[in-house]
Write a structure and sequence with these properties.
This is Gas vesicle protein. Keywords: Coiled coil. This protein is mainly α and 124 residues long. The chain has one domain. The protein is built from 2 helices and no strands. The protein is rod-shaped and about 125 Å long.
Length: 124
């Protein structure tokens, strides 16, 4: 927001200086000078009002966009959480099945080791 204020003050100051220089260096009658000053003052006021309105529009748009972004981020995080839970539910029965098979394999290996220790090899 500080950059917006700096820009607005710069434009305002530049306009005032430019108007002053042009008024002081232009030879014209008092009535013409007053008319030019009035016109430039009106234009400057209109420009300041337009900058203010544009700034407010920008502020409102940023607020709206940030609200929409927050809502979108919340929806995405909920979708991801739902996907992860669904994946866990899908994998869980298979994990139990795999664990049972691994346990059976370990038992089979243990039995084979026991049999090998009980029946030593006969050398020919």
């Amino acid at each position: 927001m500080a950059n917006g204020k700096s820009l607005m003050l710069g434009v305002l100051f530049g306009s005032v200086v430019g108007a002053s220089v042009s008024l002081l260096t232009t030879p014209s009658s008092g009535e013409e000078l007053r008319s030019k000053v009035k016109d430039q003052s009106t234009r400057l006021r209109d420009l300041a009002q337009q900058i203010r309105e544009d700034g407010l529009d920008l502020k409102n748009q940023l607020f709206k966009t940030s609200k929409e972004g927050a809502a979108l981020l919340k929806d995405i995080s909920q979708d991801i959480q739902t996907s992860i839970e669904s994946w866990k539910e899908t994998i869980e029965p298979h994990q139990e099945n795999l664990q049972e098979h691994l346990q059976q394999i370990e038992e089979s290996i243990k039995e084979l080791e026991d049999k090998m220790q009980d029946n030593p090899k006969q050398e020919a």
